[in-house]
Amino acid sequence: MNLDKKRRRNFFILTGTFGMLLIMAFTIIDYLEGDTIEFFINILMSVILIFGAVGVFKYNADRLVYCIGLNLLNLAILYNVSIGAGGLVALIWIYLAPLLIFFFMEKTESIVSATLFFCIAIILLLYPALFNTHDYGLNMGFRFLISLLFITIIAYGLEASRSRYSRLLKKSNQKLTSQNEKLEAAMSEIKILSGMLPICSHCKKIRDDQGYWKQIETYISEHSDAQFSHSICQECLAKHYPNLVEKAS
Questions:
Q1: Which helix or strand (DSSP H or E) is residue 57 part of?
Q2: Which residue of 164, 200, 205, 244 pairs with 213 in a disulfide if CB–CB is 3.0 to 4.6 A?
């Protein structure tokens, strides 16, 4: 599971748990007050949360659940606004929509969903007569839409910034991982000679860990990737092959 998916699931658990508790409380209140429509809306929202949890954690359908579930939740919020549920209380809950939209949905889906949500809010608050919805007053509706637009922009900006730096961090981590893998591969090919090497003062053989004396070329070749090619220095040439030196001169 990638970090972004895990992040959304953890927040889904948090919001879903507290959301269910709030819905249960409102359901009891609406039942006692005799608000049948709001009572059934609360039941519907509970069902959405339950099926959403099943879709996410059992069927691994995160993206589909977030897209469908949030849009249904937004419709429920907008319906409460249209009937003036709780007076101005319904308007307060509408602020929650853009925050959840940009947190859970992908970029394109979130922009489309937030735009539709805002357009419907404009109709409900500025033109209530079109569908005979609750009239909050033009002044109140206009002020509220300005604040909703501000929150929508902030929510988009925060999520876009987080997403950008998350991609940069992921790219940086991938580059670092690649460099580490190359370094480990290089280190595995390198053999290092270290410590005290017992060497004969006459024949220059080296004694290995098993006590055997080996030619220095053989020992170094076995303990490193070095290879030897034989030649002869000028001093040895003059000492062992003086005739060749005289002919060359």
A1: helix 36-57
A2: 205
pLDDT at 189: 58
Distances from the Cα of 29 to the Cα of 22, 24, 25, 91, angstroms: 11, 9, 6, 18
Q: How many CB atoms lie within 10 A of CB 195?
A: 4
Q: Which residues pair with 199 in a beta bridge?
A: 206
Distance separating alpha carbons of residues 73 and 108, to the nearest angstrom: 19
CA distance 150 to 156: 10
Q: What is the rounded average pLDDT of the residues 138-160?
A: 94
Contact, 41 vs 29, CB < 8 A?
A: no
C-alpha span between 128 and 106 (Å, rounded): 32
Q: Whole-angstrom Cα distance, residue 97 to residue 77? A: 8
CB of 118 within 8 A of CB of 152?
yes
Q: Residue for token digits 């929650």?
A: 96
For residue 211, report the phi and psi dihedrals to the nearest 5 degrees.
90, 5
pTM equals: 0.70
- What's the chain's Rg over C-alpha atoms? 38
φ/ψ (deg, to 5) at 61: -100, 55
The owner of tokens 């040895």 is 236
